[in-house]
Design a protein that fits this description.
Strand content: 5-15%
Number of helices: 9
CATH superfamily of one domain: P-loop containing nucleotide triphosphate hydrolases
Helix content: 40-55%
Number of strands: 7
Shape: globular
CATH topology of one domain: Rossmann fold
Structural class: alpha/beta
Largest sheet: 5 strands, parallel
Radius of gyration: 18 Å
Distance between the termini: 7 Å
Length: 209
């Protein structure tokens, strides 16, 4: 089962990808992780990508696609995989069509204001990296593990989240339409609990399994 997972910031995409990975014993493939791994290992593709990263430029589609193609040829992908963060553009989606057969595109749907509430409520301990949410800890300002004062990460500030959501919608809308026309897009409302949301995904994937 070859799956693409789409979802805005705060939709729980990472959590759902992890659960799908465990359920079907297939790898979660993140282009961000791949880039970092290739650069760290000094592969030929990594060296080329590093030049763009060091210059503060976007890594070209051709390099990203080459990395994806190489990763999908590895033995652990024989029974399927979850693509997380790829494709991001129609050009990438068209290139992916030439190297892989995608069987389902799961689109996690969550209202922007609910995404913002989920993410802006996060609190992080700068000392031990423990994470909390105000819906659970209320007005508590100290880490229960080490006593350090909790902070709000820049990524979790409302203005940052709104900008990330805006960019996400601009990039993803064309992809949704692209895969909808192919009959592969399955939209899942993820306003429920983790268990409820995962059950909906499993039900949707049952059509393709």
């Amino acid at each position: 089962m070859n799956i693409i997972l789409l979802g805005p910031p705060g939709s729980g995409k990472g959590t759902m990808a992890g659960l799908i990975q465990k359920k079907y014993s297939i790898p979660q493939i993140s282009t961000g992780d791949m880039l970092r791994s290739n650069i760290k290992e000094g592969t030929e593709l990594g060296k080329k990508a590093k030049a763009f990263v060091n210059a503060g430029e976007l890594v070209p589609d051709s390099l990203v696609i080459a990395m994806v193609k190489e990763r999908l040829s590895e033995p652990d992908c024989e029974n399927g995989y979850i693509l997380d963060g790829f494709p991001r553009t129609i050009a990438q989606a068209e290139a992916l069509d030439s190297i892989a057969k995608i069987e389902a595109v799961i689109d996690l749907i969550l209202d922007d204001e609910k995404s913002i509430a989920r993410m802006s409520g996060r609190r992080v301990c700068p000392s031990c990296s423990a994470t909390y949410h105000v819906s659970v800890i209320g007005d508590e300002k100290l880490c229960s593990k080490c006593g350090t004062e909790l902070v709000i990460r820049k990524d979790d500030e409302e203005s940052t989240i709104r900008n990330r959501l805006k960019i996400y919608h601009e990039m993803t809308s064309p992809l949704e339409e692209y895969y909808r026309k192919k009959g592969l897009l399955v939209s899942i409302d993820v306003d429920g609990s983790i268990e409820e949301n995962f059950a909906k995904i499993l039900s949707a994937l049952g059509v393709y399994s």
